[in-house]
Amino acid sequence: xxxxxxxxxxxxxxxxxxxxxxxxxxxxxxxxxxxxxxxxxxxxxxxxxxxxxxxxxxxxxxxxxxxxxxxxxxxxxxxxxxxxxxxxxxxxxxxxxxxxxxxxxxxxxxxxxxxxxxxxxxxxxxxxxxxxxxxxxxxxxxxxxxxxxxxxxxxxxxxxxxxxxxxxxxxxxxxxxxxxxxxxxxxxxxxxxxxxxxxxxxxxxxxxxxxxxxxxxxxxxxxxxxxxxxxxxxxxxxxxxxxxxxxxxxxx
Length: 252
Hints:
Layout: E1 3-14, E2 17-28, E3 32-36, H1 43-51, E4 58-63, E5 66-67, H2 73-79, E6 81-84, H3 96-108, H4 115-118, H5 122-134, H6 150-162, E7 168-172, H7 180-193, E8 198-202, H8 206-212, E9 215-220, E10 223-228, H9 230-234, H10 237-251
Parallel strand pairs: 3-8, 3-9, 6-7, 7-8
Antiparallel strand pairs: 1-2, 1-4, 4-5, 9-10
């Protein structure tokens, strides 16, 4: 299967801190690939470089056959690369539907004067309702986003990413701050989405990672120390010493 995303020798430094260190990553179309590692491993910096939020110091990023290393975020979105953030970024005063309609509008490049128009346009509203249905928020469409729970905010953010009709999702800790029931709901949702989309998942919840991932890459200090199938990662002594042992101790 051809690689949808190919990362070659990616490097990013902040002063003396090495955030990504000669990082190599290949993700074929249709795969859910998890990236794990301790705090400060460079996971969010990796996603920021893939999405175009940060420019790498060196290395190349190829997506869907194109070199996107120097492309801005909007150009990557147009190619089908969508990101959700570790911390939700929503318009809390607007309705749930308006939030997603804005995401559709951004993807379509419409020049409406402001969000007030977005809610009236079927070409924006209908895809927005479809995205909300995919994440289970249809019944909440007309509520202000501020009325949703934290878990529903994560679902809404995911709907906004889906509204851009992506080929690949970059998900930065979608389980962050969720309770057990909300986490289980998110895992179920991602399991359905992986049937349709390629997904790169950065996540600390190891139960979710091992339930969802086709392959896992482990980062420590910005460098890949292992990459492979979940059972290989679970049984890797170096990974256990660097990260999984620490996680098991936390959950013991």
